[in-house]
Every structure is written in structure tokens, then in C-alpha cells.
Task: inverse folding
């Protein structure tokens, strides 16, 4: 490293966020940026630790010490080249990744890890601003064609690498614009859609074809795709939502989180007028059920829509503030996470089970809840109700952020007869191949709902398997 004692001289400094009273008035990105000089100093904190646990914990195998050193030395171009060698879209992960690398950083032993995630996005934005990133179409084409079904992070990563390898790539997207979860799932205040559009435009200039409004298995038969392409990659995501099947769940005012978030994203992008959006929190007492990132996204969106109040409940226990002995470094720290959305005004409760919804028979007016406790019995985590804790939370809008169970099975997966695993995800072998000889699968379609960075890693792995298949099957 250029400065092996930088961590002793420079304290961790984060870019910080826009003022709370300003950011809740719009959907622009919350996170701010550091100036180049401060960012280079932050990179100098990357110590010569000997064993890069940050690299070990990164799903896409980012060469973190190497590009941190280049950043510290001011060689932004080389830093981006090293960064993009393992990660197709560092401008995405630099914004929305939970940064397992920072959890594994040796300096995190003192809760002062290197600002790896922020360094990553800073390098990428500098590369775009300075013109280092330009369309580079492949010099030769192989004559082989690949269909990517789904334009989320896994499909984009697979398509990007396969196009760079010289194959003719077409990405099919069922929605009106490409990007999948990046476009319609993640709020603009976390990931501006201009960032997604910029990368998609670059991919198209490099030769990737993108067809929107193309729902394979619905308006386009799956047989048409298998007949016209040499290989297919299914990257449709995990789109079957987990629902709460309790009394009153059919009431008006109860919505799936992804329906709510995608509607607001469509309004922001001009695909839907504000008057056409039927799921709005303005003036309402909002209850978000589910304590994960999607629930947090609902909180931030409801606050920007001027909800009267926002409450978020989670059935699991409240995480500790610091690591426990059972969760040592360098593993990902299972500690309490307070997002920027939570900071904006939200009551949070843990160990809460939802028993039923109450109302006038059609519209929800409240949720009857009960506190629970958790015990370990024979190695299993068992939930038990706490007597005398039943009560009703008054609400007129409920957002179910309970995650997803598996891919949507009707349509493509059923038509192609793809084999499923025990969790109803698409089953693949070590080469990411399904039971259909030229159909591969990637991302949440295979693993179940996961992180964007995991989807990118899976897309890259699948692309390499498809490239190997095409080159060995002439």
C-alpha cells in the first residue's frame, strides 16, 4: 500500500446525507459526495493487513486493496479499470450494497472500517465524468445468439459479459422499461434511475439489444425463444410475494410493498401520472409489516408522500447494537441497522406478530397484534406468544414487506418444464444449467430473493458458463 500507516493518521470520514428537512421533500438521492482530496485520503486508510478479508467477503471478488491504493495515489482511471474487472456495475453496488466488505475490514475491529462502498461509487462516478467509460463493442462476433429473460442486475450482468465475449445478446423485459428491481423496486432516493439508464444506454451502444414489453411465456411463447437462440438465460427474479394470510387480509388499504414502491417509481419517471397512482400514503396512518430493506424503503416513500404517521413492525427480535460472541468478525455483523428512512420519522417495534386486520368489513382500520418471544428448542428457533399483550394498532394503510417466496411459476417456467428445487426456485447444476439442455438460470430465480451484489455475481458466473457452452457446442 502507498501509505501503510494512513489508518493511524486519518479518521474515517463519511460523505454524509442531505439535510433531513430538505430530502423528505423530494425523491432525489439522499447520500452526498466527498471532494476528491478527502476521498483519496479515505482510500489511504486501507492498511497493508496481509490478508484482505474485505476481498474474501465480497460476492463479486472486488480487488479492494488494489483499487484503494490506486485511488490514494490519484490514478482514478486505473482504479476504475481494476474495479470494473470484477464488477459490471459498481455505480449500483456503490450506492445500495450493504457492504459486507466493510464488516470484514480489519479496521472494523475498532468500528472504523475503510469507506469501501463510498470509495467504489466515487471511482465510478469520476470515471463517467472524466470520460474514461466509453462504449467498447466487441471487435469480433461469434455468430452465437443468447436470450436473457429478465433485465434486473443478474440479467444485465450476464448480458454485459456475454456481449463482451462477442455473442449476440438480446435482453427481454416484461415491463415498459428495463432494469427490473433496479428500475421499479428500489426508490429513487437510494438509486437514481438516471444511473440505471446511463448503464443501459452504454450496453446498447456496445451491441446489446433490449426488448421491453416482452413477457416471455405470456405474450411471447417460450418455444419461440428456445427455437431462435443458441442459449437462454432465465433471470426473471423471485417475483412471487409472501403474503399474510390472516383475517381481514382482503380489506382495501392493504398492499404489497412492491406494488407500492413500483407505482411511485413509475410516477417519478413519468410512466404514471400522480393522479393515476392509487396507492398513496398522504394523510394516512401507515403500518409497514416487515423490518428489512424493503420495509425501510416503504417508510421513506410514505414519509415523502406526507403520511400522517409511519409505524414499522418486525416479528423477529431487535438486533443488538454491537456484535455478539456468536457473530464474530470478520463475518457480516448482525446488528441493528438504522437507515436514512428510519431517521426521517418512524416508530419501530420488534417481536410483533400480526393476528388479524380489523375494519368496517371492507376498509382496514387497524391491525390486531401480539408480542412474541423466541426460544431455542432442540436447535430450532420457536416463537411463543406473550400472554396479555394483544392490542390494536390504528391504521388505514398497510404495506406488506414480507419478502418473496420463489419465482413466478406460471408462464415461462411451466411452459419450459424447468425443474424446481425444494423451495420452488429453478434448479441448476454447477454450470448453472437447468434440466433443459440450453437453458441456464441466474440470480434470484435460482437462489431466492437476495442482494443486488449477489445477483450480479450470479449473472457473471452464469455468463461464463454460457460462453463455455457456446464455444464447446458448435
Result:
Amino acid at each position: 500500500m502507498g501509505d501503510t500507516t494512513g489508518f493511524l493518521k486519518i479518521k474515517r470520514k463519511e460523505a454524509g446525507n442531505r439535510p433531513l428537512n430538505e430530502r423528505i421533500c423530494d425523491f432525489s438521492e439522499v447520500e452526498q459526495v466527498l471532494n476528491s482530496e478527502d476521498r483519496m485520503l479515505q482510500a489511504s486508510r486501507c492498511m497493508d493487513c496481509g490478508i484482505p478479508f474485505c476481498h474474501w467477503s465480497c460476492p463479486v471478488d472486488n480487488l479492494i486493496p488494489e483499487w484503494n491504493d490506486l485511488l490514494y495515489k490519484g490514478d482514478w482511471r486505473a482504479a476504475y479499470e481494476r474495479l470494473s474487472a470484477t464488477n459490471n456495475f459498481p455505480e449500483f453496488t456503490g450506492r445500495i450494497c450493504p457492504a459486507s466488505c466493510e464488516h470484514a475490514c480489519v479496521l472494523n475491529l475498532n468500528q472504523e472500517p475503510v469507506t469501501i462502498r463510498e470509495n467504489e461509487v466515487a471511482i465510478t462516478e469520476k470515471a463517467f465524468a472524466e470520460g474514461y467509460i466509453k462504449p467498447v463493442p466487441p471487435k469480433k462476433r461469434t455468430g452465437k445468439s443468447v436470450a436473457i429473460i429478465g433485465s434486473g442486475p443478474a440479467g444485465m450482468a450476464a448480458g454485459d459479459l456475454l456481449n463482451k465475449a462477442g455473442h449476440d445478446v438480446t435482453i427481454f423485459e416484461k415491463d415498459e422499461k428495463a432494469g427490473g428491481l433496479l428500475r421499479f423496486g428500489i426508490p429513487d432516493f437510494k438509486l437514481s434511475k438516471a444511473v440505471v439508464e446511463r448503464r443501459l444506454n452504454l450496453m446498447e451502444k456496445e451491441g446489446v439489444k433490449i426488448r421491453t414489453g416482452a413477457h416471455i411465456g405470456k405474450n411471447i411463447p417460450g418455444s419461440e425463444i428456445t427455437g431462435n437462440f443458441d442459449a437462454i438465460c432465465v433471470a426473471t427474479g423471485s417475483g412471487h410475494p409472501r403474503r399474510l394470510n390472516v383475517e381481514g387480509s382482503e380489506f382495501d388499504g392493504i398492499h404489497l410493498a412492491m406494488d407500492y414502491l413500483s407505482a411511485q417509481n413509475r410516477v417519478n419517471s413519468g410512466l404514471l401520472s400522480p393522479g393515476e397512482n392509487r396507492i398513496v400514503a398522504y394523510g394516512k396512518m401507515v403500518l409497514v409489516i416487515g423490518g428489512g430493506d424493503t420495509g425501510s424503503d416503504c417508510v421513506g416513500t410514505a414519509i415523502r408522500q406526507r403520511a400522517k404517521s409511519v409505524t414499522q413492525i418486525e416479528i423477529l427480535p431487535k438486533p443488538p447494537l454491537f456484535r455478539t460472541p456468536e457473530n464474530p468478525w470478520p463475518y457480516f455483523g448482525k446488528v441493528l441497522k438504522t437507515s436514512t428512512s428510519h431517521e426521517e420519522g418512524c416508530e419501530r417495534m420488534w417481536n410483533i406478530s400480526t393476528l388479524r386486520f380489523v375494519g368496517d368489513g371492507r376498509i382496514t382500520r387497524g391491525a390486531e397484534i401480539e408480542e412474541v418471544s423466541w426460544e431455542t428448542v432442540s436447535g430450532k428457533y420457536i416463537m411463543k406468544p406473550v400472554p396479555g399483550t394483544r392490542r390494536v394498532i390504528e391504521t388505514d394503510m398497510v404495506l406488506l414487506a414480507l419478502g418473496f417466496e420463489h419465482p413466478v411459476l406460471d408462464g415461462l417456467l411451466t411452459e419450459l418444464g424447468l425443474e424446481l428445487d425444494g423451495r420452488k426456485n429453478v434448479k441448476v447444476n454447477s454450470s448453472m444449467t437447468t434440466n433443459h439442455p440450453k437453458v441456464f438460470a441466474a440470480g434470484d430465480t435460482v437462489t431466492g430473493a437476495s442482494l443486488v451484489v449477489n445477483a450480479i455475481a450470479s449473472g457473471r458466473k452464469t455468463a461464463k458458463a454460457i460462453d463455455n457452452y457456446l464455444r464447446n457446442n458448435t
User: Anything to note?
Assistant: Residues 452-472 form the longest helix (21 residues).
